[in-house]
TrEMBL record:
InterPro entries: Aldose_1/G6P_1-epimerase, Gal_mutarotase_sf_dom, GH-type_carb-bd, YihR-like. The lineage of its organism: Bacteria, Bacillati, Actinomycetota, Actinomycetes, Mycobacteriales. Gene3D superfamilies: 2.70.98.10. Coiled coil: none annotated. This is Aldose 1-epimerase family protein. Pfam families: Aldose_epim (PF01263). It comes from the Bacteria. Transmembrane segments: none annotated. SUPFAM superfamilies: Galactose mutarotase-like.
Amino acid sequence: MSDPTNYRIRRGGYRAEVSSSGAALRVLEHETADGPYPLTESWPANERPPLRSGTVLAPWPNRIRDGHFYFDGIEHQLALTEPERGNAVHGFVWHRDWVLVSHNDFRVEQALDVGLHKGWPYQLRLTVSHEVGDDGLTVTHTATNVGGYHSPFGLGVHPYVRAGDAPLDECTLRLAAGTRLPIDPGRGLPNAYSQPVEDTDFDFTSPRSLRGVELDAPYSALDVDVDGRARHDLRGPDGRGVRLWAGREFGWLQVFTAGAVPELEYPGRGRALALEPMTCPPDAFNLGIDLVVLQPGQTWTGRWGLTALASA
């Protein structure tokens, strides 16, 4: 397998690099008087994204129990891509090389046909554009049903965010989320109904320290501002940091802290935080919760982004 291609974009004080591998966001930095301020975790340019960092997860994010689901009365059996847990995980495109559509100084667009796979007879075409400007990074996704049958669909993204060079244990996190879906830690699948986060260890509606905190939780009931965006903030000890926002199309946010065990440490950083906008929860193809159904010829569009936060 050849090395991935990296596309550089810059504008408005922001610099990003996007990889062809998984259409992953490899670098996002904000220029400051002190030099570049990292807003995401990164990895060597000639390597594939570690821990699915920054990649697109489609045509479903997260996990499908036993790789098995029914849709429109038809039974489907997907390959178990997480065999140790008995799941099909994160779809078909996070590890593939995407095709360049266009690239200029401040925007890059890539595309990919999902293709036909074991247990997946649906034909979808995906695009993703990364664009930087004065307000940071905006990422736009589309999915078009180019086949003859209506198709189930979900999408997520797996960025690891960071507040400059601050260790995660010195940072605080605020999440605009009112509920979380309990999951079985052994399989990463839902094992109860959604529950309010208020007055629990999962409550980050006000900024809280991440020292020693380990999370792998799907959040919902996102608090959307008047512009239709939910906003979540990670700040370092000096008050600076990064904000992840997502449009209404992304009704879920998976929050994951890497580093709980050695094999899940982020290379060169150890503990790291993934804030993952998702359209649906784990096992949505079986639960039917927030599952998108695309009719032939129909296109879905969703947006999210990242911006730097100054000291409060």
